[in-house]
Write a structure and sequence with these properties.
The chain is α/β, with parallel strands linked by helices. Helix 2 links the parallel strand 2 and strand 3. Helix 1 packs across helix 6 and helix 4 runs antiparallel to helix 5. The longest helix has 20 residues. It starts with a strand and ends with a helix.
């Protein structure tokens, strides 16, 4: 049976870093970052682009589900609303899969520190800090397993995800 990991969390919490670690820790694994399906300049958010990115994500995830080479499928994206998670799940051919929905969280202090470090390095724009901090509470209402990444190594978080029921 295949396992699909849907991993959400605010920008800067460490989703991509943890998922890269998971990819090497799990057998026969493939990793999709939702941001890769919507990497545009200028970045535009409207009904058409939202529909397009969900279609792109679900198409790729279903391709991975149908491919016998993969037993573990990792997907990460901000996914700050239950509607987003439900929309992805409703489009997947996951009847014969185990699905683990996980939200990575951290303290506001840790999140600010991580994002400000990225801003200083030129990896992110300064406005991402407040946008990400504002979304942090929304993850508490989601039907996901919450994992706090504050003060943990990437390896520790990856292990928690693997062991999550």
């Amino acid at each position: 049976m295949k396992t699909i990991y849907l991993i959400g969390g605010p920008m800067g919490v460490g989703k991509t870093t943890v998922c890269r670690k998971l990819k090497t820790a799990l057998a026969d694994c493939v990793f999709l970052d939702g941001d890769w399906c919507w990497d545009a300049s200028p970045f535009q958010v409207n009904e058409e682009t939202r529909a397009m990115v969900l279609e792109n994500i679900c198409f790729l995830l279903n391709q991975f589900i149908h491919c016998s080479a993969y037993q573990n499928i990792i997907f990460c994206w901000v996914m700050h609303e239950q509607e987003i998670i439900d929309s992805v799940l409703s489009r997947l051919d996951a009847a014969d899969c185990t699905v683990k929905t996980i939200s990575l969280l951290c303290s506001e202090e840790a999140l600010r520190g991580r994002l400000l470090g990225d801003v200083r390095k030129g990896l992110r724009q300064a406005d991402v800090v407040e946008r990400s901090v504002q979304r942090l509470p929304s993850y508490q209402t989601l039907n996901t397993r919450k994992i706090d990444t504050s003060g943990k190594t990437v390896e520790q978080v990856a292990r928690e995800i693997i062991l999550a029921q």
